[in-house]
Amino acid sequence: MHAIDPTARARLQPLLQRVLIYDPNLHAASLLEGALRGFGAREVRIEVHTDMARSAAEMIDPTLVFTEAAADADPFVLVNAIRRSTMGCRQTPIFVLTTLATGSALGLAQDAGAHEFLRKPFTHRDVLRRLDHLARHPRAWVEKPGYVGPERRLFNSGAARRRLSDRQALIEQGVSASRLYLAR
Fold this sequence. Notes:
By secondary structure, the chain is an alpha/beta fold. It contains eight helices and seven strands; from the N terminus they run H-E-H-E-H-E-H-E-H-E-H-E-E-H-H. The longest helix is centred in the C-terminal third of the chain and has 14 residues. About 25% of the residues are buried.
């Protein structure tokens, strides 16, 4: 178990109020629960069935969700169900857990609206590091016809800020609207 300094614990508290873990493997979910409780999680709910996890998300309004990328037809069914709903937790950070850590799987998780992607097996330190980064660097929320979720561009790349400043500079230079569209 990793010791957490009081500053980091305080930073993580808003995320760890009500945690929902969906994982068909109860043993894996219990290990994650233990780590989260060690970090200061207060209420942790584990569900092993997708439908029950969806109902739990609506009922407990989690402040953080961990979901296994299940091996069914839609591995991100819970992510999609939360993001495209009217639930109070639709903007809640979602971590996708999977043993299949490929570039295409990461892309699919991002497209579904996940905040983070964590490859199994992971250590308590991996989880803590990702949670701390999430608490320190919140991402803008995006709602478009084909996508609902956090900003998909790398959250530490500064690309969104650069794009905005580039657009503002072009506006100041009097660039036409059609060129501004291309500059996005």
